[in-house]
Amino acid sequence: MKHAITWLALAAALASTDALAHVAPAPPAPGAFSDGPEDPPPARHPQDPADALYRTARTALSQNDYRRAAQLFRQIADRHPRSAYTPDAYYWEAFALYRIGGSANLRAALERLESQRGAHPRAASRGDADVLVTRVRGELARLGDAGAAEQVSRQASRTAESCPQERDEVRTAALNALLQMNAEQALPILRQVLARRDACSAKLRERAVFLVAEKRTADTESLLLDVARSDPDRRVREQAVFWLSEIPTERAVATLEQILRTSSDSRIREKALFALSRHRSPRAARLLREAAEQSDLPVDLRANAIFWLHENRSAENVAYLRDLYRRLDRPELKEKALFSLSQMRGQGNDRWLLGVALEAGEPIQMRKKALFWASESGAPAAEIVNVYDRAQDRPMREHVIFVLSQRPEPAALDKLISIARSDRDPHLRKKAVFWLSQSKDPRAARVLQEIIAGE
How far is the C-alpha of 48 from the C-alpha of 428, rounded, in Å? Predict the structure, then answer.
């Protein structure tokens, strides 16, 4: 590329810049794959001379007092070289230094990790140490260390070749570090990783999908589409289909439609339904509705399609779900329709749900579900009281008593008190008394005392 400045040249130019010398490591992106443990294991050697020191160091680290933690872990290794805690103290000192950040601390962390490799090659934390080395180098590269940048680049490049001996966490850390340094340089390597089809690179490809999706570029869509269609590993395909939910194009919707219609893997199709729910195009909404009514589709997938329809809170979807509820013949699907409508607030669904609760021809379980979700979606307590007054059957009235007991409004407690005092059905009076006994409202306690006294 003409006039392009390579990352290594840029890193070398930045190496003398003091402004970045004390920048702390950037926190991992939400949902990023973990690169190692964040807390030392609990103390397990009470007779060990370094036990108290280790406990103090561990507490300092858990409280994010990284400077004190680094000092204390250093003391363990220096004062108690034969302690059972010493082999891993090198790692935790380095980890604390990494968390402090700044070029000097990061280089000190690398030095301690190298000392651990030489003195304690069988330490329990050695595998995590290799990951931390890569993370530290990536951070040094971000601060302008050309040598660290070159090492990260070489390590990341090896991931696109034959299966290396390095742990997947190390390889992922290298890719992530390179991506943070220079996306233009990292994406060709990620593309090579994703083009592999061997079993040993499946986990790495899965993590590469996340990195591609995390660092949105012009190539993100085509890379995810290719993986979703052709990767031989189901988990890798699942990740690609999931992240297609963040690609708002008709091309992505077309791929999701193809997956939904042709895949025999229910988990992949489930991810496709979720991804479609995140798109706001008419085509995506149509595909969800078709899936909801597709009789040859597994019931759990139809239920998921109905569930995800609430993501698009359009008047059209509200009308569709109300109509669909009347046409469904499976209780698990009808229940999902009730729930989806309850999540689409501000469109009169609470009153519609209360209407279902009063329909004597509906199965009692559906009526109870409708009442519960109407209450959860914000139906006024007075309208729930009205359901009690209009319902003719004991099971429904008993459920109304329970729903009223969960409401904080005075009107709900007023109705429970009225039922406990004067309802004609002794069974319902007992139910109201029970729920009044669970209330912390002083009025409930007074009414219970009156009932006990026979007043």
Answer: 65
Query: pLDDT digits over 288-304, tens only?
Result: 999 999 988 999 999 99
Give the tens place of pLDDT for each residue, 304-346.
Answer: 999 999 988 889 999 999 999 999 989 999 999 999 999 998 8
Task: Quote the DSSP letter at residue 126.
Answer: H
pLDDT single digits (tens) 247-260: 989 999 999 999 99
Virtual CA dihedral for 13, 14, 18, 22, nearest 10 degrees? -160
Q: For the purposes of burial, counting CB atoms within 10 Å of the CB of 402, is it exposed (0-12), middle (13-18) or buried (19 or more)?
A: middle
The whole-model pTM stands at: 0.65
Find, among 88, 28, 30, the residue nearest to 58 by Cα.
88
Give the span between the Cα atoms of 17 and 89, in whole angstroms.
32
Maximum C-alpha span of the chain: 95
Phi-psi region of 30 (alpha: psi -120 to 50; beta: other; left: phi over 0): beta
Side-chain half-sphere of 409: how many Cα atoms within 13 Å? 14
Token digits for 157?
Answer: 């490049």
In the predicted model, is pLDDT for residue 152 greater than 90?
Answer: no
Dig out the tokens for 132 from the structure. 């931390």
Place of tokens 């999931």: 242
Query: What residue spans of 162-230 are helical by DSSP H?
Result: 168-181, 183-195, 202-214, 220-230
454: left (phi over 0), alpha (psi -120 to 50) or beta: left
CB 269 within 8 A of CB 263: yes
DSSP 226-254: HHHHH-S-HHHHHHHHHHGGG--SHHHHH
Give the E-state strand segments of 66-112 in sequence order. none
Task: Tally Cβ neighbours within 10 Å of residue 114.
Answer: 14
Backbone angles phi, psi at 314, to 5 degrees: -85, 155
In the three-class reduction of DSSP (H, G, I as helix; E, B as strand; rest coil), residue 200 is classed as helix
Burial of 418 (0-12, 13-18, 19+ CB in 10 A): middle
Q: What is the pLDDT of residues 192-238, one digit of tens each?
A: 889 888 888 888 888 889 888 887 888 889 999 999 999 999 999 99
Q: Which residues are CB-neighbours of 82 under 8 A, at least 6 positions away?
A: none
Are the beta carbons of 119 and 112 closer than 8 angstroms?
Answer: no
